[in-house]
Amino acid sequence: MSQSSLPIAKAESPDMEVVMIKCLKDGCQDSFPSLNDVKKHQRITHQAQVSCTIFGTKDTVKLTRQSNDMSTCPTEGCNHQTKDPVNMQNHVKRCNHETVQAPRVMPVPPPDDATLVPIGNQVIVIPEYTSLAYNSYAQVLLCQKCNQGIIPNEVESHMARAHHEKG
């Protein structure tokens, strides 16, 4: 598209004239303030396919935009999706199938009626501080009032915040 053949839309205001460039691709009537903005819009909105170089090879693959307007990375195990063809080209070029990790599954929180396991001999009660105990297995201080692990330098703030006690 040459500068002289650009579809121009003029928006006039009392102070100045604003020149906008129309897309017109596939009948699109969207207008933009610069040619770069038009090209970006056309790439993201109207480009149906993108050619990508596969990581570590010279092989290319042509990806077609899906019904949700997204392209999906072809690398096994990768779930990356994007509307931007340039983003997809850069991603596929760097997406190493050996380092793609399976998506993490968030652990299910315990139910409200979770059973508290007896402390046994791995927890040492601290006689000088009746609200604290030490779990020798996890190597962490425990608040005996709420069973929360506490970093040693945060004991005072925990007691004040959680139990309204001042040291």
Q: How would you sum up this structure, described in words?
A:
The chain has 167 residues and is an alpha+beta fold. It has three domains: 11-44; 47-94, no CATH class; 122-163, no CATH class. 19% of the residues lie in helices and 24% in strands. The chain has three helices and eleven strands, in the order E-E-E-H-E-E-E-E-H-E-E-E-E-H. A four-stranded antiparallel beta sheet has the order 8-9-10-11, with helices on one face. It is elongated. The model has no long low-confidence stretch (mean pLDDT 83).
In short:
The protein has three helices and eleven strands, in the order E-E-E-H-E-E-E-E-H-E-E-E-E-H. The protein is of the alpha+beta class and 167 residues long.
